[in-house]
Amino acid sequence: DYQKPVALPEEPFLVIAHRGASAYAPAHTFPSYELAIDMGAHYIELDLHRTKDGKLVVLHNDSIELNGSELEIDEITSDTLGAFKPADEFNQPTNEFASQRFSSLRVPSLEQVLREFGDQTNYYIEIKSPDRYPGIEQQLIDQLAGHDLLNREDSIPKVIIQSFSSDSLKKVHELSPETPLIQLYSFKKKANLSSSKLKQVTHYASGIGVNATAVTEQLVDAVHQAGLAIHPFTVNEREQFSSLFSMGIDGVFTDKPDLILQLLNQD
Ligand code: G3P
Ligand code: CA
After folding, report:
1. CATH of the domain at 117
2. Residue 60 designated active-site
3. How many domains is the chain partitioned into structurally?
4. How far is the CA of 45 from the centre of ligand 2 (A)?
5. What is the pLDDT of residues 21-58, one digit of tens each?
6. From the candidates 28, 42, 49, 60, which is the catalytic residue?
7. Residue 128 pLDDT more than 80?
């Protein structure tokens, strides 16, 4: 027994700023999110982890390198994480967007992001490595509810939650059946998802996210047949975008929301 997931609106085509406008500013930092919002992206994408002291934090990897050691996020406190500089990787001499003004940035907590942007933007949140973080689903839903970001009547959902883990998404669907969910997949070659597999996904999710190189027209059609949406990741090139767009995808993850919006507005 399950509550049918909500359908995502067919319009607009969703521009999802992957880790913010992360081509132009360090991923998962305030400048990256601000830029994405200023450019007009529909969503900022957040990757979620939890520190040893129980804080939800926004960064991509399961671990950081600090003073020559590899530290797992679930084994360090938020204080320790506070010493990590997310801009170091971005600020390479070969990067034309590198800037010293980024060097003081720190990994934001989910709380800081929600407090800063409130309902100015929409959030496309990935639960990373849920097996490492028991109870993260309830914690996330509580935190979003505390900011009044769930069960709203906006033209597009204020929050979408994504994960590679179907178990985690099923938990979220039970806790918050009105929140649209995206089942992520990554395929080495072309995507292979049977219609019965896609039907199972419809029990808890509103769409799928797939690596862009795996997407075929047949997949897009099968996903739509099942009543799901499809958002490929991560598309930063004009030609790749045009090809996927002509297959009928519903949105895209991009490090360059300005490029995608420009291409969309040309039509
Ligand atoms: O969440 C979609 C896409 O971002 C998954 O890949 O590794 O960039 O989080 P990753
Ligand atoms: Ca992600």
Report:
1. 3.20.20.190
2. yes
3. 1
4. 7
5. 999 999 999 999 999 999 999 999 999 999 999 999 99
6. 60
7. yes
